[in-house]
Design a protein that fits this description.
Chain lengths: ~450, ~200
Amino acid sequence: MADQTLSSNLIQGIVSTEKAKTSDAPILDKNFKSEESELLKNIIADDETAKGKAEIDSSLLIETKPKKSVLLIILKLVFVLVCLASIATVLFFTSQLTDTFDFVATTTNQDIPNLSKQVAAQNEDIVNKQTDLNFYRYLQAKMYVDQFSYYGDTFMKNFEIFNSKTSSSSERKKAKEDTVKLKEQLSTSFAATNEKLSSPIYTELVSLDYMLLTDPEKITESEKLFKGKLIAKLETSIKNLEKETSAEAKSDYKNYAYTLLLAKNEPLKKLFIGTKFEDLDTDQKLYNFIKQMNSMTVNDFSAMQVIKENRIRWSEIIKEIDQRTTAIDQYYSKDFYDEYGGIRYTSYDFDSKTGKISISGDTKRFDAKNFTMIASLIEELNNSDLFQGAEMRSFSKSGTVEDGFTANIQITTYLKSAVAKAKIAAEEAAKAAARAKAAKANAAKSAASVTAAN
Amino acid sequence: MQSSRENTYIRAYVLLILIIVGAAGFYGYKMWTDYDFLKQGFSKNEAAAEALKTLETDEQSTYEEKKPEFKDFTDMVNKNIIAIFPSDEQYTTLTKKMDDIEAQLSTPSNPIEISNITFQKPVKIEGYSLLPLRMTVKSSQPNFLKFLKLIESSGSVDSELRLMDIPSIRLNFEDIISPEGKDNKVLDFTVQLNAYFQ
């Protein structure tokens, strides 16, 4: 206890001395202060080691705390500010560019603005507007395609009349006049169709994957997106009208159904966009274009076009037989058979399935050269662009020099076009059979390998 | 000692600040680029949406304006198509049409006479159907050719004659004396026809 009092007094004395020194000599250097502090600490340590507890007047120690560095304080402040700013940045961008904080909006039932979502909503709105725009454009395009098909059908008929060997000059003249008028209507429908189909189906969308439409791949992607939306809209419209019974609803239903086919028909769209009407400067070119278009279109006209293309123009075939016969017998069809002789037909038999034509008749000659006449007729028929394989293997004649000699004609020939079609059909059938055989063989092979594995 | 500790703290703080500023700066720059892109896109989208709205309204009005015209056209086409490519076999209408053809072509000097028509069972083919019929006809040569041409040009939207084709013809030539005493060639032919329907 005596020790403790002694120590306390000593400390107080030293501190008082120290305080006096400080007040008397304020310009004491820091090192000196530091040494004295160290000394003081050692004394306290010794005192505590000696298990004596000195009472410290802490108020006396206040002035002895080391002064903090201003720079460190500033740095700490800056650090805190930087941390806060960083957190704010992360929070801001996360809230604006992601949906991480959606739960906050849901929980608090408050609308937190999110730029990314706003842009997405705008994009959706743009997609819907562009789809509506495409919807009305395609409905119109479909009508113009129908108009083009309609006028095209009449144009083709007139073109065929004009170029037919069996047409009279007045028929040809009328057909030519009609084609001129029809060309104007076709030109108008073509231009309108082209305008509707060549307008871009897509529009640029703003998104973080930078859908820049200068990249052809992105354009294709975008076109696919908008085409899909258009098809979906048309399908929905069709579905909505399925159960409607009013005449207008039925008409709209058919209209939408054909527009849907047009929207899916990329080759037809490309054909229209890739063609300039001015380039179809001849009737033949225009005829070929309409034919090509009909082969790509799916509507009533296209179904009829297929039938029309496959039918045989028998009147032209009869005309061709007449012309080939006239080349051998100059009096043919002039009713001089009994007087001067020549060729007279008694029957024709035409079959479009096989393309076979059977011609029966007689020849009459006063010089007995009936066989030569028939042989020449066979050769003439074989020279024709329409026929092939004309033949007659047996010849016989009878008669006298006075009454003339007569010989029967029994010629069979084939239509080149029908034979070509039959050949193509046979080739396709053979290919199909080969494919079926290969498939069967593969199936057998697979079955065998499965059995072996088991 | 104190000074050394402070220096360590200072260095540590400076380093931390630099690291955080660097990371936050990189993150902020990257995010700002996206944000700025979207911000500009937002304004662009607003303008685009406005322009599209105008275009869409115009296109819709054009369509609505032209709809009656389109409807008339469609009705006219449908009417013609129903005549040339009906929705069912309609053999009675076709029979009447054959009588009309006979009346239209036949004259005393240029006769045509349809003596028999036999309809067979309709056949369904992919995309359409056909009604086969056989006709026996006696006709002058010019009328025979006219008849062939009529069938060959049938199915045109302006002809109103049902779409048909001729798979086979068998014809025999006969000589007959016309009422005027003129020797006319008369053809006696049997023709197999296909009349098409949807």
